[in-house]
Design goal:
The chain is α+β, with helices and mostly antiparallel strands. It folds into four domains: 4-235 and 386-496, FAD/NAD(P)-binding domain, CATH 3.50.50; 240-255 and 277-385, Elongation Factor Tu (Ef-tu), domain 3; 508-581, Arc Repressor Mutant, subunit A, CATH 1.10.10; 596-647, DNA polymerase, domain 1, CATH 1.10.150. Helices cover 34% and strands 19% of the residues. It has 19 helices and 24 strands. The strands form five sheets. Strands 1, 2, 6, 7, 8, 9, 10, 11 and 22 form a nine-stranded mixed β-sheet that branches. It has a six-stranded antiparallel β-sheet with strand order 16-17-18-19-15-20, with no helix packed on it. Helix 2 (57-66) packs parallel to helix 10 (419-437) and helix 3 (71-78) crosses helix 4 (102-115).
Length: 651
């Protein structure tokens, strides 16, 4: 290695993985993309809940896959229980979810990343190298150790009898020269590791994850560059030994009989060739009790996540600690807790629903107060972690920072929570970093095109008060942003920006043509004296009756999707008309040189907010808190006058 690359990714979590893979695809040469990780053996690790997807999050995973990403494929390979959430409701709010074998997931992510040709280094970043307002690389604490893909077979059979192993292993001979790595673009994906501190009761330990270190110097380096930092907190529940739980006494939670996969790629193109790939398992459900609630109330002062013993009060509102639940919902006698196996080869069970930072000696009786867990053994106690982040109004919708060109932020450093939100940001940052170094325009996904567009827009215009989590309610165009049509919405865009390879594009075209054929067949077929396509819009319409009306039974997935399109057709016409009206102002650019203080009549609050967030478009400005329609009209008038003046200025 010569100490220089085109795109450098700092961090190997979900954001870092998608960033490196996307940059590699967009550049067309993975050898020019490097990743720096504190522990390359942990690249792609599921540090909290061993699950991918869920409500709105499942849509993000399918969008990542539609753009050629890694997460959906890895989840399909590692899933040990698949479930479509909100299955009884409309397709627009359904969300695919997969409980995963965390070891298999990590191994599959690393296998896919290695296939992109990304070079991996072990090191710790100390400083961001900036020259004349442009990011030129990073400075490490010391020389970086090179890691390489293992030559050992890492596949495992569908019964899970062969254990998955990490792919990246240390290269015993290689180390990068010097402690400065030059790069044309840098993507920072530090997760929860910046100045991170873990809390279990009164015990404090430096680190962003159990058994791992802390990125201590990056926070100071960012402040030195002029970035405004914040501090957030999150938590994790205890892990139990399955053999010590009265498993059979608890009600089971089964997956779907006919699982929905995340990836749009057909099974025969995958390494495993069949899905589900691994042995499927059931989860179990228990609940908190009155005795448990009383124990928590008596020890609230010893829970730093709740009692204010941490630097910040800003925790995850939508994934609260069990202490928060007991206080905020004092009238509730119990809360559901789901016991989820983390791996086919270990006895570790994740307690979904009792995230806690209480002392270890309190967590023991706390767990024992739950039905079925009277003799449960705790393998790892729950803990809270607080960490530094960068307020995301300082990035653009491309994930590039406004202060330093060629410098991108993705993942929890931007104030988000969740694997899926991080991975989506990583993909956006990766493709845009690659496009910048190639001198090409960046990718901006609109709110009407995908949840990824909603995510990036929300981060830019709405400063989070707690870790940001995606919900279907955040997407005003959710009728057209379904999980089943992410490929139709985004795969052509991914192809245009170099993210979608020939194999994926060919599979997309085959599926698209098949749906067109099904739609045409339904137009010709008759049910109850009318076309089957029109009949499909009825509330009592069924897939079986539609299939029976056709001369040749189509693929059930294609028929289901066409039926959904037909049912939503009337609503979508109105929604698309609204989208067209919004586009008239949404994409009017606001130049970087725009000075809100020069707009006469603009209210002081609007002037300050626009100056702080520096929106890139008039649409972004309209969504800023503190900016009203009359303010937007004044800015639009100012922009229009400036444009006219430029047109009449003599050369």
């Amino acid at each position: 290695m010569n100490g220089r690359c085109r795109v450098l990714v700092v961090g190997g979590g979900h954001a870092g993985v998608e960033a490196a893979a996307a940059a590699s695809r967009a550049l067309g040469s993975g050898a020019e993309v490097w990743m720096i990780s504190m522990d390359p053996a942990r690249i792609g690790a599921m540090s909290c809940n061993p699950a991918i997807g869920g409500l709105a999050k499942g849509q993000i995973v399918r969008e990542i896959d539609a753009l050629g990403g890694i997460m959906g494929i890895a989840a399909d390979h590692a899933g040990i229980q698949f479930k479509m959430l909100n299955a009884s409701k409309g397709p627009a709010v359904r969300g695919p979810r997969a409980q995963c074998d965390k070891e298999a997931y990590l191994a599959e992510v690393q296998r896919l990343l290695a296939g992109h040709g990304v070079s991996v280094l072990q090191g710790l970043v100390e400083r961001i190298v900036v020259e004349n307002g442009r990011c030129m690389g990073v400075q490490l604490q010391s020389d970086a150790r090179v890691w390489k893909p293992s030559q050992e077979c890492i596949e495992w059979n569908h019964n899970g009898e062969q254990r998955a192993k990490p792919v990246f292993v240390p290269d015993v001979t290689a180390a990068s020269p010097g402690c400065v790595i030059r790069a044309d673009a840098v993507i920072l994906t530090t997760g929860t590791f910046m100045r991170a501190l873990m809390h279990t009761g009164e015990t404090r330990t430096a680190g962003g994850r159990v058994g791992e270190g802390v990125a201590a110097g990056i926070s100071a380096a960012l402040v030195e560059l002029g970035f405004e930092l914040g501090r957030l907190k999150t938590g994790t529940p205890p892990r139990l030994r399955r053999g010590s739980i009265d498993w059979e006494s608890l009600p089971p939670q089964f997956g779907d009989e006919h699982p929905h996969m995340f990836s749009f790629l057909p099974a025969h193109t995958m390494a495993c060739g069949r899905f589900p790939h691994l042995r499927q398992v059931e989860c179990r459900q228990t609940h908190t009790t009155h005795a448990m609630h009383e124990l928590i109330r008596a020890n609230l002062h010893r829970a730093p996540m709740y009692a204010g013993a941490m630097e910040t009060k800003q925790g995850p509102r939508y994934c609260p600690s069990v202490e928060d639940k007991v206080v905020r919902f004092a009238d509730r006698e119990s809360h559901a807790v789901f016991l989820e196996p983390e791996c086919l080869h270990t006895d570790e069970v994740y307690c979904n629903g009792i995230s806690t930072s209480l002392p270890a000696e309190i967590q023991e009786p706390l767990v024992h107060a739950m039905p079925g867990c009277e003799r449960a053994q705790i393998l790892r106690h729950g803990y809270a972690v607080e960490y530094d982040m960068v307020w995301p109004h300082q990035i653009d919708a491309t994930a590039e920072t406004k202060l330093v060109s060629g410098f991108y932020l993705a993942g929890q450093i931007n104030g988000t929570s969740g694997y899926e939100e991080a991975a989506g940001q990583g993909l956006i940052a990766g493709v845009n970093a690659a496009r910048r170094v190639m001198g090409l325009d960046g990718l901006r996904i609109g709110r009407d095109q995908g949840y990824l567009g909603v995510l990036m827009d929300d981060l830019v215009v709405r400063q989070p008060r707690e870790p940001y989590r995606m919900f279907t309610s955040r997407a005003e165009h959710r009728l057209s942003l379904r999980s089943d049509n992410a490929d139709e919405r985004l795969t052509p865009i991914g192809r245009q920006y170099g993210l979608v390879n020939d194999m994926r594009w060919s599979a997309f075209e085959v599926d698209r043509d098949a749906r067109v054929h099904v739609h045409a067949a339904l137009q010709r077929a008759k049910i109850d004296g009318q076309s089957a396509a029109l009949w499909a819009r009825r509330g009592d319409a069924t897939l079986q009756r539609l299939a029976e009306s056709l001369p040749a039974p189509p693929d059930s997935a294609h028929l289901d999707r066409v039926m959904t399109d037909l049912r939503y057709a009337g609503y979508l016409v109105r929604q698309h008309a609204e989208i067209r009206r919004q586009h008239e102002s949404e994409h009017i650019p606001i130049p970087p040189s725009f000075d809100s203080t020069q707009v006469k009549g603009l209210r002081t609050e609007a002037r300050e907010v626009i100056g702080r967030f520096r929106p890139a478009t008039l649409g972004q400005a309209s969504r800023l808190a503190g900016v009203n329609p009359s303010d937007v009209a004044l800015v639009a008038l100012w922009l229009r006058r400036g444009s006219l003046a430029a047109c009449h200025t003599p050369p």
